[in-house]
């Protein structure tokens, strides 16, 4: 994931910072407890495609 892209992308729900989860290849919003997939290097920032994080994943 390009670090320059991480500086400008934001959560589409709360407009907050997204963190890159390399292990799962996702962008994570800890505030909304959502994980957005990255397909072929392109973040899919659609709430409908996001995965809800479990309480164990949000730390």
TrEMBL record:
Family annotation (Pfam families): Trm112p
SUPFAM superfamilies with a match to the protein in the record: Trm112p-like
Domain of life assignment: Bacteria
Cellular component, GO annotation: cytosol
Family from the record: Belongs to the UPF0434 family.
Alphabetized PANTHER family for the sequence: PROTEIN PREY, MITOCHONDRIAL, ZGC:162634
Protein name: UPF0434 protein C0W81_01885
The organism of origin for this protein: Photobacterium aquimaris
Classification of source organism: Bacteria, Pseudomonadati, Pseudomonadota, Gammaproteobacteria, Vibrionales
